[in-house]
Amino acid sequence: MTNFIPYNVCSGEDNMRIDNELLEKAISENAGEPYFRLYGWAPACVSLGKNQDDNFLDKNLLQKCGIDIVRRLTGGRALLHDNEITYSFICPVSYLKNGENVVKSYIEISQILIDKFSQLGIELDFGGSKKINTKFDYCMLISTGADLCYKGKKLIGSAQCRKQGYILQHGSILYDYDKELLEKIFNENVDTSAITSIKEINPNITKEEIIKLFSD
Known about the structure:
globular, alpha+beta, three-stranded mixed sheet, 29% helix
């Protein structure tokens, strides 16, 4: 049985603190069942990968736009968390059939998302690995085998960390995005042929529908 944490909206700092606290709780209690959490962000926030340099960011621009900055527990590149739904999934490695294998564990956990979105008529599959171009600081422009795509366009980007036999995987489900704002923040062209959003796929689907789907 999955321990479901109801959707809530928090600051970036609080969201990362809660994910960390859930991971530590699972470890301390030797939890055998997973935790699944949905959340939003207010104000909008740029999250940096655990070891990512932040020298590409214009801190004055972010302050002017009212956008926070936080560092994730997980690796990868930066994300702007704004008009999205974020999930986190925490479980012991032993909970998964292939928990010791990073790539296969991504696939197992992400199957939850595939199954849920299929109920909305959105058929997702795993992004094929593309050569990473290191100039991209924006995570959604980098495609890996762990991404979930709709018709070849990235919709959900996920990242993992592991600690004391437990996995934390969290990811960003793009509901909508502001191309101009992304290009200002990351100082690079955002190729809209590479990413998509729920609003682009089906503008009639609301955030509330998605949240309810995962809550059931």
